[in-house]
Amino acid sequence: MAVLFVHPDRLEIRLTRTEKLLSLRRSDIEVPLENIRSAVLTDDPWVWVRGIRAPGTAVPLTLAVGSWKYHDGKDFLLIKGTRTSVVIDLENAEFSRIIVTTKHSLTLLRALRLPPLESSGATKIAAD
Questions:
Q1: Cis (ω within 30 of 0) for the bond into 115?
Q2: Number of neighbours of residue 74 by Cβ within 10 angstroms
Q3: What pLDDT is attached to residue 128?
């Protein structure tokens, strides 16, 4: 299960070894908070999936881990089942959208909406 950290200046998604293997990715994902355009909760993350898997792993309506390319760019998906997920739209970043399934979706949204803190602490949020 990936762990999400909301730092004062960036969102960090630390992928497990298995998630890195399934997504064919060597590194974790870091996105500056200033590049986050919007974030929304969804009960059905599968309706937000666009494009084709490249590279990544997918089992329809069960698991999607990795990059999905579409005509204007690419998205990163970390979807497990049909649980509540957060859809994060980005600009000027490696991905156009990140979709992540997490039990702590409300906590993640609240943390993303907070203005940068003066301390160097980070909010830790575990994904499913």
A1: no
A2: 17
A3: 65
